[in-house]
Amino acid sequence: MHVADHWHAYAWIGHARPDDNARVDPTQPVPPLEIVHWLKKHSRHVAETFDNTSEGAASASKWMRAGGEEHEFVSEAAFPLDARMQYVEDDIRRGADVVWGYYSKTLRYVSRALIACPRDGQQCPYGH
Fold first, then answer.
1. What digits encode the pLDDT tens for the residues 46-62?
2. Of 21, 76, 100, 108, which is the most buried if we count CB atoms within 10 A?
3. Where do runs of H (alpha helix) occur along the chain?
């Protein structure tokens, strides 16, 4: 299993889940069809980058939580943020990707992702 040297954070919010034509276009800021394809997007689409240190992991976790607090999940009672954050923190500890795609209580489609980098066969958006 690949363990991240760092994670790139991506965020996108829209009125609905984007259609597949937009999702395969790396110039678009929308969530791609495949998780690894986030790294094909231009670096201007990277919201933040977190290194794989205790401080970086804590900041990455806070970034995910902030998005969940700002854009509350439509089914929050069924799958509360604290429960989702347990999965986030476990994935971060393992150096894995963290990906959320959901509808908010305001009926916006919310995508937040922490993408492990570098990866075999995929260059870092910053050329590292």
1. 999 999 999 999 999 99
2. 100
3. 20-23, 54-70, 81-93
